[in-house]
Write a structure and sequence with these properties.
single chain; 652 residues; alpha/beta; Rossmann fold; Methionyl-trna Synthetase, domain 2; 5-stranded antiparallel sheet; 22 helices; 43% helix; binds 5'-O-[(L-methionyl)-sulphamoyl]adenosine
Length: 652
């Protein structure tokens, strides 16, 4: 049960719906999700917010291009973000859209209050306007006559507008940043903001004439104008809690972490902080600006045709592998590069070899020596203490690192524990212990500790790889609710109960061969070249086959078969030789499933066999049929039945 006094509020930026989401958007959201999940494990009541920024010039222009009205455009596009977050297992507690009435009414309320307080005034303005960034600049801000932020051309604009008296808060804000070390993180970014505040701070233009931009929230005190998109969007962090008076009652104010990319640090550190100050609301405890992802060394952009399509990444590699890669590969705060080599390297070495092998070998040995039941330990020796100490040290050190969002260091530490568990098994050599009676007494402790180390690891990786953690729990036989075990249970050894019946399953992360990886990455990037084409649709296209008649279908003789023998084919990584009973006879079948299934676990299973396939010879062995299975991102899952069926029954 979460402790009602421990509350935690974390946010992502709300993303523009001028285009479909890409891996950069996924990055911030996954990072926030990892923190939210960790805090929940630690007994906090968490409020994790994300959403979409649906007003402003960019969105309006995008809608015009597609030829639909702006509301229809944002209704369709915001769904892409929601769908993607589901696929990435994002556990947000709310999703706010700036076109919702609950948001608009709070924006109007804040504007009216500030206007009444004299914080907003109307003036004639002449300046340089960057359309893509939607920001005004003074002559001296420009760099070579272009926007200092994005380098693109700016337009000279003269008009009457409303201004928020931001400039008056400069000294106060500098002081606040200096006094609150964690307010802007990491430290290098903090210095950047302080540098920015060394220059005079202009007042902020917060309106756009309606005749130039009709798509926005009308100012409550002058409906010839709409609200500047940033002034509107930033308020989402407040409006999600309901009317302004609710904020003190909601239990989630001030915000603990606003996560943002480095591109939007100024708007958060300066605009948002001064807006909050003027409204009389407490500032967030921290604004953390992370780095920027490039692809093979280049900025991700549609014109470069290198945008990484996140849906396809999930299709091909699974959400957890991508979540792990993004948070492990670069320190949060620094820029990173997305490359095939780096991604595949991490999947094969960290996930398939280190983590996957640990689980497989431990469960195999438990199966072999204890029929899959976790034994009771027989007292701990000093050589066991090394593993136990490493586990508690990992829990302690990763906890401290979470305060500064040191994701990659946290993952390095957890993998040190994975390595320590692998080394422990090597050093204790259960296969030797099993040979003697004295050894067997010791074996129980070694196998118990191995299982408990894996349980600890599963809890620690849950914030990063929730699906994998649940799979490990399932295979350990301890249910799926990692959250119900909580962080407390990794702080002391012994959470797994002797007598627990394990349930080994397929490999967590099958290795990906270089050729296969190349093909996959080509599709991921080719699909993004198709612009806003959705990934699932692109995949469907690839798999579309011609229609067949029912007569054609019935030419295939699908039969139930019971596997009676299974052994690995020597010198082959993938092949298993099976003997399959199909009622009338026993067939010899060679199947490419060895990377996902241990042969011993296949015996007794009922599968579906293509019984009238022409025999073929694989590695010198005749195969008299083909076993049906789904191949998902290289992981093979056999087709089966949810109730017992006898061998030889036709499947249609
Ligand atoms: N709508 C504003 C934010 C308003 S918040 C009150 C906005 N939206 S955005 O769609 O452009 O998203 C910007 C955010 O997406 C960045 O701050 C960052 O969190 C993420 N990223 C977009 N591209 C990225 C990379 N290439 N690399 C890393 N993160 C990136 O700005």
């Amino acid at each position: 049960m979460p402790d009602p006094r421990k509350t935690f509020f974390i946010t992502t930026p709300i993303y523009y719906v001028n285009d479909v989401p890409h891996v950069g958007h996924a990055y911030t959201t996954i990072a926030a999700d990892a923190v939210a999940r960790y805090k929940r494990l630690d007994g906090y009541r968490v409020f994790f917010l994300t959403g979409t920024d649906e007003h402003g010039q960019k969105v309006h222009q995008a809608a015009q291009k597609t030829g639909v009205g702006p509301q229809q455009h944002v209704d369709a596009l915001h769904q892409r973000f929601k769908d993607l977050w589901k696929r990435f297992e994002i556990s947000n507690d709310d999703f706010i859209r700036t076109t919702e009435e609950r948001h608009k009414s709070v924006v109007r309320d804040i504007l009216q209050r500030l206007y009444d307080q004299g914080e907003i005034y109307k003036a004639s303005y002449e300046g340089w306007y960057c359309l893509p960034d939607e920001r005004f600049w003074t002559e001296k801000d420009l760099v070579n006559g272009n926007c200092p932020e994005c380098g693109r051309a700016v337009d000279k604009i003269q008009e009457h507008n409303y201004f928020f008296k931001m400039g008056q808060y400069r000294d106060w804000l500098s002081g606040h940043i200096r006094q609150n070390e964690n307010f802007i993180q990491p430290a290098s970014r903090r210095n950047e903001v302080l540098g920015f505040l060394n220059k005079p701070l202009e007042d902020l233009c917060i309106s756009r004439p309606r005749e130039r931009l009709p798509w926005g929230i009308p100012l409550p005190f002058d409906d010839n104008y709409v609200t500047y998109v940033w002034f509107d969007a930033l308020i989402n962090y407040v409006s999600v809690h309901g009317p302004l008076e609710e904020i003190r009652r909601c239990g989630f104010w001030p915000c603990d972490h606003h996560l943002v990319g480095k591109d939007i640090l100024t708007t958060h550190a300066v605009y948002w902080s001064t807006m909050l100050k003027a409204t009389g609301l407490e500032l967030p405890k921290s604004i953390f600006a992370h780095g920027w992802w490039t692809v093979n060394g280049q900025k991700m952009s549609k014109s470069q045709r290198n945008v990484v399509e996140p849906n396809l990444l999930v299709d091909r590699f699974g959400a957890d592998a991508i979540r792990y890669f993004l948070l492990r590969e670069v320190p949060f705060g620094q820029d990173g590069d997305f490359s095939r080599e780096a991604l595949i390297g991490r999947i094969n070495s960290d996930l398939a070899n280190n983590l996957g092998n640990l689980l497989n070998r431990a469960l195999n040995m438990l199966d072999k020596y204890y029929a899959g039941v976790v034994p009771a330990p027989n007292g701990q020796l000093p050589e066991d203490a090394r593993l136990l100490d490493k586990a508690s040290e990992t829990a302690r050190e990763t906890h401290a690192l979470f305060d500064h969002l040191g994701f990659n260091k946290i993952l390095i530490k957890i993998w040190e524990l994975v390595d320590a568990a692998n080394v422990y098994i090597n050093d204790m050599a259960p296969w030797n212990l099993f040979k003697t009676e004295e050894g067997k007494a010791r074996l129980a402790t070694v196998m118990y500790n191995s299982a408990e180390a894996i349980r600890t690891i599963a809890i620690l990786i849950h914030p990063f790889m929730p699906e994998t953690a649940a799979k490990i729990f399932r295979q350990l036989g301890i249910g799926e609710s990692v959250e119900s075990h909580g962080l407390e249970s990794v702080r002391k050894w012994g959470g797994i109960q002797p007598g627990t019946k394990t349930a080994p399953g397929p490999q967590l992360f099958p290795r990906i061969e270089e050729e296969q990886a190349k093909k996959i990455m080509d599709t991921v990037q080719n699909a993004s070249q198709a612009g806003t084409e959705s990934a699932p649709a692109a995949q469907k296209q690839e798999e579309k086959l011609e229609q067949v008649s029912i007569e054609d279908f019935f030419k295939i003789d699908l039969r139930t078969g019971k596997i009676v023998e299974a052994e690995k084919v020597k010198k082959s990584k993938k092949l298993v030789k099976l003997k399959v009973d199909i009622g009338s006879e026993v067939r010899q079948v060679v199947a490419g499933i060895a990377e996902s299934y241990e042969p011993e676990r296949l015996v007794g299973r009922t599968i579906v066999l293509v019984a009238n396939l022409k025999p073929a010879t694989l590695m010198g062995i005749e195969s008299q049929g083909m076993v049906l299975a789904a191949s998902d991102n290289g992981k093979i899952v056999l087709a089966g039945f949810d109730e017992e069926v006898k061998p030889g029954v036709r499947v249609k």
